[in-house]
Records
---
Amino acid sequence: MEFQFQFDWQAAIDSIPFIIKGIPYTLLISFGGLVIGFALGIIFGLLSINKKWFFKWPATAYIEIFRGTPILVQVLFIFYGLPDLIGAPVDPLTAGIAAIALNSGAYISEVVRGGVQSIDKGQTEAGLSLGLSRTQTFWSITWPQAFRRMIPPLGNQAIVSIKDTSLFSVIGVGELVRQGQIYIANTFTAFEVYFVVAILYLAITLSLSLILRLVERRGLASV
Amino acid sequence: MTQIVKMKGMNKYFGSLHVLKEIDLTVEQGEVVVIIGASGSGKSTLIRCVNGLEEFESGQLEVDSQPLAPKSGNPKSLAEIRKEVGMVFQQFNLFPHLTVKKNIMLAPQKVKNAPEVIANATAERLLNRVGIGNQADKYPSQLSGGQQQRVAIARALAMDPRLMLFDEPTSALDPEMIGEVLDVMRELAKEGMTMMVVTHEMGFAREVADRVIYIHEGQIVEEGKPADVFDNPQNERTQAFLSRVLAH
């Protein structure tokens, strides 16, 4: 008997309305997590370049821990492990957002550190020599220039984090992959459904790339 | 005469390297002091101590009657001194993300809380003074090196400093642009600005300086009127240095 596989377009199209329900969750977890991650990245990135050890060491520890362990382990830890510690359940959505936030925060810290350290020391000296305080010099001279250089790696991190949310199907968040799995359980059309899931991820990441490219072009035009 | 800068027995180390040795130097109000010397002699470090961009290890330094203690880094007295002391750098160090005009307006607005209209008027006046009034809305990268350095001078002048420090202001410039920057500095000197200038432009030193100081390995070995230092140097180190730089 010969096995012949035929891509079932109808099955793919039929699956879309169900799978697409995962998009709000995918977007909520990624962007919610990234916004918090960006805040964490600024805080810990700046602390990690502070000369004082009691700022630098904890920040470096955070960065190394969350960069050095898999995000899947992190989310399992938050979802299954943390309730034991705090004595209350953590809902899957919160766990997902927290995992993206903490994980992307570690990577963004490094982006912030690299961006700030790439700005020439002469810029700080010029600011100080004009009588600006260290804080004024940093926020009005160093940071705006560093931020522009951070846009491409930040975009990169956003795309990585969006894709990372697919792992959270394991804790039952109804994001794209999870929706696909539920659908396949009833129809057994794995090939078509995962194809649709992949296309939907691509649609999200490509739109983001496009937006970033426009932002970059606008931001760099003046430097 | 008011003494704007007073240094007494100042010593500065980079690790084990003794870069400034027992420096005694005063600068009077309205005086133009040009500091010459080979690269690595400590001349840039010397003027960077004046506005606290470098700390020194021992000795005394007073700028505009404000004492600056060794290794203090006291942010309050540093901020006070920096308001009174402008600095022009070898690499210009303009802010690339701001227009020329905003480069000049930044410090008056942030440090002196100058209203925007006032800061704006000051910027326009200073840009005209350094001869680039028509470039106000461009970004630094759109200007030539000579124009950028003139913007940097205007930026420092916007804080109405009592003293201007020039750290090799023409060393990064193409030869044909050196003149336009020296012209602006010459004008400033003529108007009575107190200036400390580190430079390799011996012609400028001879013409504009009230006093020339030669530094060798962190020590002031010769000091005097330009005519004396250039035509009749007493120290053999100075003689050797001048014969090297004036030979061509």
---
Amino acid sequence: MDSLKYSEILKQNAILAKDVENIPSYRINVLSNFTCNQLKDILEFNLRASKLNPEVKLGNYDNIIQESYNCFGAQLVIVQYDLINIIDKYPNFIEDFSEEQILSLFQTVKLDIDLVINNLQLIPAVVFNTFSAIGVYLNAVIPSKADLLARKLNEYLYSIKATNLHVLDINSAIAKVGLHNTFDFRMFYLSKSIYTISFWKEYVYELSTIVYRYTGKLKKIIIFDCDNTLWKGILGEDGMTGIDMSPQSKTGQIYNKIQQIAVWLSNQGILVALCSKNNSADVEKVMAEHPDMRLKKDHVVISKINWLDKENNLREIAKELNIGLDSFVFVDDSSFEVNLINQQVPEILTLQVPAALHEYPDQLLKLIERYFYLSGNTADIDKTKQYKVQSQRDEEKSKHHSLEDYLSSIGIEITIKENDATQVERIAQLTQKTNQFNLTTKRYTEKQIEIFMNSDKENVFSVSVSDKFGDSGLTAVCILQENNEIVSIDTFLMSCRIMGRNIEYAIMNYLVKTYEQRGFKIIESAYFPTIKNIPVTNFYDESGFFLVKQEETKKEYKLLISDYKPRNIEYIKIKC
Amino acid sequence: MDKIELAIQQIMANVFTVPLEQITVESTQNQIDAWDSLKHLNLVVALEEEFDITFPVEEIGSLISFKLIKVIINEQLQKDGKTY
């Protein structure tokens, strides 16, 4: 909604109204002492987008007391008793009031509050906006009378013990959108409409949290990726000592803060989970032993650390915990993963780690404010925990698309170069640091790569990958050796950033075809197992090679090129 | 319709919740039932947001037909040195 224009919200709101018409309605009455009709559309839109069917009724202008007698049947009543309009009725400016006048005004408004709260005691939820002197008169040096009055009234509001009452601090929305984007005094003097669309959007986000609390729409679980999401770096490549979440390092401290927030969420009863393409033992080791790791095993309710696609992992989490996918928040640094989830499971709310990393904690906190309700009350914490047991998983919609559908929609393009001298440096680097998708884990220097490129027997293939989200650069390397009629794969490696997109099979198709055209009949290959390269244990089996010899430290394979059945992955475009 | 007219048409249809084709360059406040004083406020803020302009207070009451809206928007764009 942040990015939608008001006119677009109006249009979408009318469309959404039809989508939710069969859901039981949620009745909201708004009592206000100023014109606030734009609130209605924006609130309706935001709630309808969350699959609620709000019926928003605006009370008559400046009739808060009278209207509070007429709220029977409402599930939520919003009271907006704005100071700007309260003082507008007096013949002299508020700062010119005597102390007695201020006190008497306080008493008058206090009695109104009491009456309204009393009239609304049977309404399940009441939202009462705070009073604010912003927009009336503020003075940093000599506190304004408007401000003193507002503070006194707020103090009273917060002291009221009514379990259905939620005091909503409007200074929060004013601060977020900024003073100049909050008020439209032109409209105030024309028609007593005080606030701008920008203000209403922010206000509605804040208000919606309360609605979600009463309608079971709060988010219950937050799932973090690991690499470059909980720490800087890629565990499989940089190793335990290479990843960074240190409070002492410039970048690490940002991740440290993210982990602190995750721990806080866990302590508030929010379920915290991990979903990462990594070796499970590696991540467990980091959680147990890394000195900068704030998020510990006890904070995490479920982990999916494996090489399967994230869509299915998230669906598994929903199944295992028995909670709806619409209560999920998913945080990942990869635009591939985030877009995969947005497209395949749109009911999941996603957050992509921003490129401007310093904005990451702030964006996460904003999301938490909007979609979680963290009162710190044991009752609320327990309630969240109960969801884990009680909540019925939403029936999956049958429109489950396959991963293939997604992959074919993102325009993957790979460029394969043979013996490209300009890439020697990056190729050598990849052989030295790639651990996970690396069949033989042979490390080569730049000199050695150069020798391969210039020899008649060896060929070095380097692969760059791009898709509609951007260019991943050079991310895969294959080195093949020719011996008479046989060609053998010396090296086949790929950065783990591009795993899970079937790119390895596209490369294999290309290699087999290339060597077939050069007159070869057989391709040999081998897998040398290491602690890190478990994800590719079965790569050659899955590529149609047959196992000729198996030892503890080596599996040898062979492929008769004439028997090769290329995988159907036409959606990956190959350029040379 | 030109680009500005198309945008005005779309906004009026959205604000008054009527089909697009019901809004023409001939449309006026008298012909559109939903165009009351509250919807008028919505129309003003929606137009301002779309064209990135602020109408002077005295013009707000004059925005009562498609043609007048277009004239006033063009004047304001020109005054601000903006193009749409």
